Amino acid sequence: MIINRKKMKQSAAIATIVLFSACSSNKQNTEAIKEAPVAVTVATPSADGQQAINLSGQIEAAQSVNLSTRVMGFITMLKVKTGDHVTKGQLLVTISNQDILAKRAQTDAMISEAEAALSNAQKDYDRFTTLYKQQSATAKELENVTLQYNAAKARVQAAQQMRNEVNASLGYTILTAPFSGIVTQKSAEAGNIANPGMPILTIEQSGSYQVTASVPENVIAQIHEGDAAEIAISAVNKSFKGAVTQINQSSQFTGGQYIVKISIPDTEKKAVYAGMYATVNIPLKTTPVAKPNDNSILVPSTSLVQKDQLTGIYTIGANNVALLRWIRIGKTYGDKVEVLSGLDKTDSFIVSAGGKLYNGVTVTIK
């Protein structure tokens, strides 16, 4: 009896350890899944055959510039700071220019010397021209004087061009605001050495904003400049209409996504700041082969999931998880399939995903 009780206690302890290990393993697996959500693109079917794609975007200034110089030197004046408002043409930065001023003085002296030589050569040319006409000078003498006169003119022109070059370099030591806006970044201070091409200040045009969003390749062909878009900014609890103003034709440097820009109306720019996140809803224009009924619900055939004799589509559930919903499909219209039941026209479904989808996987909307 004593031996059996000891065995029973040992068995119970082992079972407890195994159960605790299993729970810990399940907890770790759950946490691992939560740490790696699948990026998806979501769309909403409509009754008239159109679809609206939902995108996540970020507000940015319509015009932004990095101020830098083409010469090296110490920054002698930089009085603005991040957040300051500047006006077009306002002096922002000055860079030491004593060496350039010295070069300009040298070129001015060279111009004076060249102009004096030219004046003397002009007199010789005029005198020998008169003598040649009077047959008191030979053609060779006139030719030599003419050559000297042309060389003197060339030296004056060269000296003047050198002064233009020095004046251009001198202009790079004074930086002014190209437009009215706000200083968003300050990368140097007075006393630092300014290097050619090194950003000193970043200025964004104030009051002119747009939304930049990424669009997957399977729907980019259905978006056109001028298309209407619904913009929602949760940070300030605002929703308004905008329009697609620019579409990037290449995705080479954007990870396979095409960048589109949506304008923000002037009347909606109050309390909107660059860097805020926004949700954009763009209706997609489609051209089906056959015209569906007015109440038909169409989805892309590529978004459907086939398992045995069943057809399903992934939707977004609570807490941003993917849920496979079984549907009944009808006729095909081009690249779209009619949904007869199982999906409402207001339900969001997943168009494409950056990873493997299954029931319960955490997703994030691109």
Give the SSE layout:
Layout lengths: L1 H34 L2 E8 L5 E11 L2 E4 L5 E6 L6 E2 L4 E5 L2 H36 L5 H33 L2 E3 L4 E6 L6 E2 L6 E5 L3 E7 L1 H4 L7 E6 L4 E10 L10 E6 L13 E8 L13 E3 L3 E4 L2 E7 L5 E12 L2 E6 L7 E5 L9 E3 L1
Helix pairs in contact: 2-3
Question: CATH H-level name of the domain at 53-61 and 208-284... which superfamily?
Answer: Efflux pump adaptor protein, beta barrel domain
Physical arrangement of strands within the biggest beta sheet = 2-11-14-13-12-15
Instruction: Report the strand count.
Output: 22
Low-confidence sequence ranges: 27-34
CATH architecture type of the domain at 53-61 and 208-284: Beta Barrel
Helix content: 25-40%
SSE run: HEEEEEEHHEEEEEHEEEEEEEEEEE
Q: Rg from C-alpha positions? A: 37 Å
Distance between the termini: 66 Å
Shape: elongated
For this structure, the CATH topology of the domain at 53-61 and 208-284 is Elongation Factor Tu (Ef-tu), domain 3
Indicate the multimeric state.
single chain
Query: What is the overall number of helices?
Result: 4
Task: Please report the first level of CATH classification, the CATH class of the domain at 53-61 and 208-284.
Answer: Mainly Beta
Sheet of most strands: 6 strands, antiparallel, barrel
